[in-house]
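Bench log, entry 3. Co-assembly request; chain sequences pasted below exactly as received.
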Amino acid sequence: QQQVKQSPQSLIVQKGGISIINCAYENTAFDYFPWYQQFPGKGPALLIAIRPDVSEKKEGRFTISFNKSAKQFSLHIMDSQPGDSATYFCAARQGSNDYKLSFGAGTTVTVRA
Amino acid sequence: NAGVMQNPRHLVRRRGQEARLRCSPMKGHSHVYWYRQLPEEGLKFMVYLQKENIIDESGMPKERFSAEFPKEGPSILRIQQVVRGDSAAYFCASSLVDGANYGYTFGSGTRLTVV
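Structure output for the full assembly:
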């Protein structure tokens, strides 16, 4: 059972455009929501993360928007670049003492030059 | 800092053989986690180990799979009598303290193909 639902499965965006990936969860005990970026043949790398006490976090061209009441969060990639082409995973952790991450199924982003 | 090192990068096994996947954590890290990534799916937690101890193996299949993290040497994920359904990417991660508050770093994974 997927605890974190991610969409879309894939998306194509033109260089300079905005990529938007959405995730939804049911478990209200989740308290930490990281996003991971994975290039082909590599392991996932932490990109940006948010806790539910804030509604938005921005790091460079990457922004997480968090809607606690809707139990949804999203990743926005502004001014998308070909180097952003990768698979992105949202994840969630249950509680400050939990070490396990529940991952979404991933979104493959392709940025066309 | 070499990061989390996993080997081999690719492993092909025939059905019924054994697969041994190795993971060397980042220097100074004593917490190791194994995740499995099936095609078109996200990563799924398998097991959490500290040196010489299995802390949580709730994500491990009950049969054929085992993991260890000895006092010396890498962590090993062992799959006995592999079947086609074991084909997946296996990722190891490590952390300095338990990954609850600070997250962890993943290796590049071992892609296991069972033929």
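The longest strand of chain B covers residues 43-50. Chain B touches chain A through 28 residues (CB under 8 Å).
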